[in-house]
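Long-time lurker. I teach an intro course on protein structure, and each term I like to show students one example going from raw sequence to a predicted 3D structure in token notation. This year I'd like something fresh instead of my usual example. Would anyone be willing to generate the tokens for the chain below so I can use it in lecture? Attribution to the forum is fine with me.
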Amino acid sequence: MVNADLLSRVASHTDGLQDTVRRVQEDLQAVSARVEQETEAFRALLGHGEQLVGTNETTESAAGSAGGAARRASGAVSDSNRTLGRSLDDIAALTDTVTATEQQMAELESALDGVDGAAETIATIAKQTNLLALNATIEATRAGGQGRGFAVVAEHVKVLAKQAGDATDDIGGILDELREQARHLISAASECSSITTTVRSGTDTMQTLLNTVAGDVTRVEETYSEVNGSVEAIDRQCRQVVEGLQGMAGDVTTAREALTGARDRAGDLQGTVTQLSTARAGDTGMEEAVQQTAAATGELAVHVSDIAGDAARVQERVHNETQVLQELGGRTAELAGATQQVHASAETARETADQAVNAIHEAAPEVREAVSGLQTMTSQVKDMTQRLGAFEEALQRIRKASGGIAGIAKQTNLLAVNASIEAARSGSAGQGFGVVAEQIGTLAGQTAEATQDIERTLQGLSASTQALVHRGRDGSQRAAQVDEDSRHINGILDTMEEAIASVRDESARIRDAATAMEATGNQVNSGLEDLQQQVNHSATDLDNTNQHLDDLLRAAETLLNVCNSTGADTTDRPFIAHAQAGARAIGSALEQAIAEGRLSESDVFDRDYVPVPDTDPQQYTTRFVEITDDVFPPIQEGILEAHEKIISCCCTDDQGYIGTHNLHTSKPQRLNEPDWNRANSRHRQIYGDRVGQAAAKNREPFLLQAYRRNMGEKIVLTRDTSAPIYVNGRHWGACRVIHLP
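-- Reply from a regular --
Happy to contribute to a lecture. Here you go:
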């Protein structure tokens, strides 16, 4: 029978719900609006983060290009050093060749004067011999028949004298040719000597330039090594920022959807509260009013529990967002430092590259002049080599002509001997011929001596010339190499300038990209700070909302319990009866086990929970679980089967520990499958949620609560009806009957 006092208590609890529902609705509207703003801010922030990644990819590309250009410049410097080193050796050898040619050609020119003198002597002797031959012819004519033999000899002598004269004329012509060649060689050597100063100055400048550029390139490479390290760090940080923001996307979406659902369901609360007022104001009996109130209150409690669950999800997401934003704030600070480092390094590299390009521009004219000089020198050396070959060939022709004159001298001498013999046979008639023959023999001897002088001179000339020709050939080979190297040096200058200019341009590109990254990074940092503030406000608003929801839920549950305390036949009475019967049966079973000595009372009240290794969620054992596994299932499973709406019946100790659960949710855990375990391995766990703890510690005859049951992959809205368990007069825990509304 419904008591009037109890009905009055029901009425007083109902009156306070209206304002609380209104506050909850206002809270949810405000939080929902703020979360919408956060969503928009988050999207903008994510866009900036992705822009950061893209800009850093540009920086990374430019750094790679600049590094490649620096390596090309370094390769060009190394190549130039090798080429220049080889060229310097060749240039030194060429210079020695030119100097030796110039000196020896002056000596050879002097030696040619000696040959010329000997040739003139031979020419004079030939003329004298020809005169003697003419005289001999005249004498032979006077002598008549006795002079015919001498006339023949005289004719032969004239022929030989003419041949000797012709040979000396040839030698004179060859000597003129040799003098011309010598003048060309001396002139070319002199020109090369004058070029040598320019070449040496240019090669010294080139060496200095290479040393300067090598140092600059080394510094650039070191700088880009730092840049690459910073770019990699920035890339990691950018991607971590974006990944963090992308990871937040799920939380933001979940919070938004959960709030939308909570806000919509909050609108239904007003209708439920109106039903409560209608039940009180209606023209019904007291018991029926209580029944209607209990039904409406139960519905209200479930709705509030569901809304509270959504709000809790939002609060969890907001908490996650706060942690992520704090972490991202630290990363953006690191990002800013790394970006500034890249900016500074890129500017340093650009300035260094500028210095190198300026050095190349300053040195290029002198180096190119030296290269031009080298090419002129190599051309002259090749020409000198050809002229030396011609010089040597001309000397051979002189030697041949000199040899011919020597042969003529021998023939002339033989004729003179024969003439002397004929003169002796002729007696006094041949005395004149004998004198002529003797003079011709003397001149032939002088001619032979002159040709020997020429031969001796030619031997020295040939040896010197051959040495020059050999050196010239070596010089010609070196000249070809120097010519190739000089052209290579021109190309290397262009390569170095192009590569270093590329370093400069890419450095400027990196600097500009770093500047853009700084600006974007500042936007990200500012966006993070703004979003952090909004999230903090949301967290505060959610705290207030959750407090109001807790107040509303407690008020609804209190009203529900008051309604069921009136004695009215509500829809909750069967579940209360099952919970109370189960609590009595469990208490009796434990008392009987103690009486039988199966365990002690201290074992029953053991609260030393021992963790079970490798379990998730964490499981524990106690000294009483073996007994409860034996005595609890028959009672719990019986209640589970007693009503179609009952989905679970389990007993908790006063700390929320459920050692023995229903059989269908007491399967062995699976490794690394926590969601499956939450649904199928619910035994041996401590439940710290509000409903579980309230049931465990309740000492009233019964306790009705709305319960959002976490089944791992889904949340089930239920009602939790519990009754306290006593063992030998001591509160042990509660029997919980969980059922659908």
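Some talking points for your students: The mean pLDDT is 77. DSSP finds ten helices and eight strands in the chain.
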